[in-house]
Design goal:
By secondary structure, the chain is α/β, with parallel strands linked by helices. The chain has two domains: 136 residues, no CATH class; 172 residues, Restriction Endonuclease (3-Layer(aba) Sandwich). Helix content is 53%, strand content 18%. The protein is built from eleven helices and 13 strands.
């Protein structure tokens, strides 16, 4: 029911943009993007599309010709990324860009509303179709990982802490991998070989949207502290290079009694992220200690901080 309602609401927002005129199209685009930002599942998909975004200025210079038309990327994923970026450009710059794109995509009408509707439709339809299909598939990686975090912290802390005490990282890795498979992440397997070693979890390695995920434990009392977290971060980054994937994940199970705080410059929907070269590494922290002190306790639990600069540096 939730999926059906979300697809219906998305369709309504798209139709409002398609039905807009020269006076209203910018405001309708703003409302459309506000809707995407306010829906956690759609926001997760949009954030995936924004990893390594296309250079729209370069594309406008090289891929747009009023006489011969536009040259779109050959793959659906790259085409949708471009459409998203161009719609944001239209939202922010309006007539400055829409007249050029309108003629290049085949609209020569002197009616401004005709030109707006043609141009917006040309770029919003591929984006809408992609978002709609992803909602139907229900397998946004960011959203799935967020669901796992909530499930564990709300209902499964004691169970996972017992797994940790029984078999450490290996048991938690297996539990997470099974969850990913149940949520539609195809063929998540453990420890595949790559030039840099073995990643804990890699899924869909043949696809552009492959999941590179490195699992690490945090528990300073057991010597799983900042050096171990840094090792996981650098491993995740190396695997993204090995598999030519733009994004990776560092998944941290906090089994200690200290609050782990990783100071990053950017975050997305509650997930920390670090841009490292042309790769993006998301960091997910899941609390599994059933005795973890609550935020309302006095005195407050100790905070263990790690800075982004440390994770990216050569410092040991």
């Amino acid at each position: 029911m939730i999926e059906k309602n979300l697809r219906y609401e998305l369709q309504i927002r798209r139709n409002r943009v398609l039905d807009s005129n020269h006076s209203t199209y910018i405001s309708e685009l703003k409302l459309f993007f506000d809707f995407l930002r306010n829906q956690h599942y759609l926001l997760s998909i949009v954030e995936e599309l924004k990893i390594n975004p296309p250079n729209t200025k370069k594309w406008m210079d090289e891929g747009v010709d009023r006489a011969t038309g536009v040259k779109l990327p050959e793959t659906e994923f790259e085409r949708v990324k471009l459409c998203l970026a161009l719609l944001e450009e239209i939202r922010d710059n309006g007539d400055t860009i829409i007249f050029v794109l309108g003629e290049a995509t085949g609209c020569y009408s002197g009616n401004l509303t005709d030109l707006v509707q043609h141009t917006v439709s040309y770029f919003i339809k591929p984006l809408y179709d992609y978002l709609d299909s992803r909602v139907e598939e229900n397998n946004s990686i960011l959203y799935v990982l967020k669901r796992f975090k909530h499930k564990v912290e709300w209902f499964k802390r004691e169970e996972l802490f017992n797994l940790y005490e029984k078999g450490g990282e290996k048991e938690l890795d297996a539990y997470l991998r099974e969850f990913l498979f149940d949520q539609g992440i195809e063929y998540p397997f453990s420890n595949p070989e790559s030039p840099s070693g073995k990643a804990d979890i890699v899924a869909d390695v043949e696809s552009y949207e492959a999941l590179i995920l490195e699992v690490k434990i945090f528990n300073p009392d057991k010597s799983y502290e900042k050096g171990y977290i840094k090792k996981g971060f650098l491993q995740a980054h190396r695997y993204t290079n090995d598999y030519s994937i733009p994004v990776g994940f560092l998944f941290i199970f906090n089994a200690g009694e200290k609050i782990l705080k990783i100071n990053t410059k950017e975050s997305t929907d509650g997930f920390m992220k670090i841009q490292f070269g042309d790769k993006t590494i998301y960091i997910v922290i899941v609390e599994i200690n059933p005795n973890f002190p609550s935020a309302s306790r006095t005195p407050q639990p100790e905070v263990y901080e790690i800075n982004e600069e440390y994770l990216r540096s050569s410092e040991s």
